[in-house]
Amino acid sequence: MEVVHLVEVDSTNAYIMRNVGELEAPVMVTAYTQTAGQGQRGNSWEAEPGKNLTFSIFYRPLCLPPMAQFAMSEAVALAVVDFLAGHRIEAKVKWPNDIYVGNNKICGILIRHSIMGAYVSYSVIGVGIDVNQTQFLSDAPNPVSMKQITGKTYDLALLEKEIAEIMEGRLKLISTEEERLALHKEFFGKLWRGDGALYPFADTATGENFKASIEDIAFHGPMTLRLSDGSLRTYAFKEVSFQPQHSVSSAISGIVEL
Fold first, then answer.
1. Residue 195 buriedness (CB in 10 A; 0-12 / 13-18 / 19+)
2. Could you report the per-residue pLDDT of 28-61, keeping only the tens digit for each?
3. 247 pLDDT exceeds 50?
4. pLDDT tens digits, one per residue of 152-187
5. Cα–Cα separations (whole angstroms), residue 149 to 152, 173, 252
6. Strands 240-242 and 98-101
7. Cα four-point dihedral sign 231, 237, 243, 245
């Protein structure tokens, strides 16, 4: 995968959207600093210049139906989990696609699709991984970086090449239904709070707080929860939120001992 380096840009996602006609997929666009980095739900993404991996990938999937587009989210999330595992950091996927180490967020992902006819024409995959940043000034409640976990300072140029290769390998596994089924099974096994225990949630429409375990994730993305009384509820994105659970282990315990 080709890697394009920018010194400064509003956001790498926006840069790709402005240059779709000139870019040849797959390509990864990175930036030393993003002045308007984007997160889920319109949030900004805090990233100290030159300290983190902030990039977007322009990708044209092969024969990916719109109903199966969540497979790309699964592939990207698992690629980040793979990448962190290579640096002895055990990470999980917080549904739908945040990456957590312990109880702390280390990576955010934002994917936009362009659909033409029966298939996804192209996708813009934005990823921000906290690497060498150790002070976070925004009101984000739980950020953590690779350096905070391991105590190491990382060469971003080397990490860019590494994550590009891992991403490309994972994204190739969404072309067929059989591959997507295997990917989905692996994704479910890497879920944060996916151990069958009861955890606190909030219904975003009603404000109701309740405890439930994750029962299932549908192939197209919605999550089914089993409440303490045994009843089931299914939620789409943004319809339910995870609530703090102070007994969850600290992110600093996320380093894997060899």
1. exposed
2. 999 988 887 655 444 445 568 899 999 999 999 9
3. no
4. 999 999 999 999 999 999 999 999 999 999 999 999
5. 8, 30, 5
6. unpaired
7. positive
